[in-house]
Amino acid sequence: MLVDTAVVGHLGRLPLAAVAIGGTVMSVAAWLGAVMAYGTTGRAARRYGAGDRAAAVAEGVQASWLAFGSGLALAVGMQVAAGPLVRTLAGGDTDVAGAAADWLRIAALGAPGLLLAAAGNGWMRGVQDTRRPLYYVLGANVLSAVLCPLLVYPLGFGLTGSAVANVVAQTASGGLFAWALVAERVSLRPHPSVIGQQLVLGRDLLIRGAAFQASFLSATAVAARFGDAVVAAHQIAIQLWYFCALALDAVAIAAQSLVGAALGAGHDGEARELGRRIALLGGVCGAGFAVLIGAGAGVVPGWFTSDPVVVEQAMVAWPWFVSLLPLAGVVYALDGVLIGAGDARYLRNATIVAAVGGFLPAIWLAYAVDAGLGGIWAGLALFIVLRLATLLLRMRTGAWAVVGAVR
Q1: What subcellular locations does the record give (predicted)?
Q2: Which region among 114-128, 146-160, 190-204, 277-291 has the lowest average model confidence (pLDDT)?
Q3: What separation in angstroms does the CA of 177 have from each of 107, 108, 137, 239, 263?
């Protein structure tokens, strides 16, 4: 979505606002993918740590069936639901809503590939295979980055070209992960009992993710009600936030795999020490991103749009963006530690508290008092601080470090 934002932003304010709204809805697919990847990583890593690689890969088979079915349902459902969803988020702006719905119906066709790739990432990370997923995901992102400007500009597809580029890249990525699973020469038959066990873990992560989605969908809806320039500026800032989160998530991914393997092997002391070191590393990485984003304040927004009003609005969010990155680095790292430990129930409850008690009231209050984009990002700051406090409390108790092949 970062490439889409940069490419489409130069088509004008309306297309950028449309991608902001359509992309926010499509983030539901990314959220489902994160749930599947995180849940699969923890279960596969524990089995791998217990010395049973075949069982770890088998977790990936069942997760892939679940991913493909969910992606297919999402792709079909969005053909019907795209219009009502984007009209709700656009706050009655029919021009933006129409463009967003057209983009979303096409982009949703990539959901099966996107979710297959997420499941593949999960089981591969669980068996400590981090090189192939990197190549597969990087290759798909490069393909999208090449196709997007090509389809949007010289081939004349405009906004639609952005959606097509996403579908092609996501389908290619999902195919690569499916091929890797076939190459393992394990049984590919679906086993409802294992899928059911994954759904139990996934349920808590799903509810946790729903709290995220409600928060960020609401943030986009509030931004849209402040006008095209504000929602376009929010799209730039939030996509850069997601990009930094994705990079910082590398620490969380390592945490999931390493902590899960340590607990699967019965080494709870090692898992606790890993948790402390990973939290510190996350904070350092977040601070590094803060320096980079802060240094680029006068330049980076202009990469995404030439509209001076949108650039001006983006700068309202920038101080919040920079100051939150070090805290976010610690939060994402500790998320990875607890997901690797299978402590999904606690994460679910903590995220709901932070969303319902912090983010959602704050952003709707920002709308009520006309606080603009600064008010929205103040709500995000409250969300991050509340999550950090609950995660540090859990780490201190040590109750998350439960040993065994499967929690």
Answers
A1: Membrane
A2: 190-204
A3: 20, 19, 10, 25, 27
* Span 113-142, average pLDDT: 90
What is each CA distance from 385 to 160, 311, 351, in whole angstroms?
Answer: 38, 27, 11
Give pairs for 384-387: CB < 8 Å, separation 24+. Answer: 384/324, 384/327, 384/328, 384/331, 385/327, 385/358, 386/353, 386/354, 386/357, 386/358, 387/331, 387/350, 387/351, 387/354
Instruction: Judge whether residue 93 has pLDDT over 70.
Output: no
pLDDT of 92 reads 63
Distances (CA, A) of 204 to 37, 326, 330: 14, 27, 21
What does the angle CA 359 – CA 365 – CA 366 come to, to the nearest 5 degrees? 90
By the 10 Å C-beta count (0-12 exposed, 13-18 middle, 19+ buried), 192 is classed as exposed
* Confidence tier at 405 by pLDDT (50, 70, 90): low
15 and 158 Cβ atoms separated by less than 8 Å:
yes
| DSSP string for residues in 294-354 | HHTTTTTHHHH---HHHHHHHHHHHHHHHHHHHHHHHHHHHHHHHHHTT-HHHHHHHHHHH
d(CA 141, CA 139): 5
pLDDT of residue 407: 59
- Tell me how far apart the alpha carbons of residues 47 and 80 are, in angstroms, rounded to a whole number: 40
Measured N-to-C along each axis, helices 159-183 and 94-107 cross at an angle, to the nearest 10 degrees, of: 20
More confident call, 253 vs 278: 278
- The burial class, CB within 10 Å (0-12 / 13-18 / 19+), for 367 is middle
How crowded is residue 195: how many other Cβ atoms within 10 Å of its Cβ? 16
Give the per-residue pLDDT at 33: 80
Residue 179 has pLDDT above 90, yes or no: yes
Backbone angles phi and psi of 129, in degrees to 5: -100, 95
